[in-house]
């Protein structure tokens, strides 16, 4: 099954993606993770992407679409994939339709007013990528899953989160309508415990 995870910054796409990917055996493809990996390695794509991700703007469509098209053509995507953070605007959605067929779009719905606090308090594991929130870490600085070091993403500050939320509202939110019209949209209430949200996703996918 080819699945897309849609949702505002901080809605829980990455958090749920780890669980969906484990349960259904689908490769988790996050364009944000791909850009951060390139930035860390100092590649040409990384140098370009950094100027956009630091400001909370979208990396140009030509670059992003080419990366995703190439990634979906790899062998591990033959049996399906889980896309996290792509597409993010109408152009990307239309491009994706040209090189792949989408079976389900999971829209994780969270009121935007909750997201600033979620993102500014987020800590991410350097080794396995798991996300945490400072409110629940009790001062711990290492990952519960793998012991890796936790860090704060460079774009998780008030100013950049503000931009990311605006970009979401203007460019990404219209995709809810786009996929609803295609009859593939699954709307999931993203407020509640992480396991509860995951259970809602599994139930919706079963149908
Ligand atoms: P990306 O990395 O995709 O960031 P994002 O969309 O802003 O989303 P996040 O990763 O911040 O949030 P998430 O929904 O994964 O939430 P998480 O599970 O971590 O993109 C980064 C940048 O890359 C973009 O700004 C852009 O520049 C560029 N980019 C990426 N894709 C692109 C594209 N297609 N085109 C162009 N540019 C692109 O959870 C967040 C926090 O909430 C955590 O602390 C977590 O513990 C907590 N949490 C999770 N679930 C719950 C819950 N149920 N209750 C309470 N807290 C929860
Ligand atoms: Mg994410
Ligand atoms: Zn870890």
Task: Note down, in words, how this protein is organized.
- The protein is α/β, with parallel strands linked by helices and 207 residues long.
- 47% of the residues lie in helices and 16% in strands.
- It has 9 helices and 8 strands.
- The strands form 2 sheets. Strands 2-3-1-4-8 form a 5-stranded parallel sheet, with helices on both faces. Strands 6-5-7 form a 3-stranded antiparallel sheet.
- β5 and β6 form a beta hairpin.
- It is globular.
- It starts with a strand and ends with a helix.
- The mean pLDDT is 97.
- The chain binds BIS(adenosine)-5'-pentaphosphate, magnesium ion and zinc ion (ZN).
- The site of BIS(adenosine)-5'-pentaphosphate has 34 residues, from α1, α2, α3, α6 and β6.
Shape estimate: globular
Order of helices and strands: EHEHHHEHEHEEEHHEH
Query: What small-molecule ligands were found?
Result: BIS(adenosine)-5'-pentaphosphate, magnesium ion, zinc ion
Overall mean pLDDT score? 97
Helices, by number, come to: 9
Query: Into which percent range does the helicity of residues fall?
Result: 40-55%
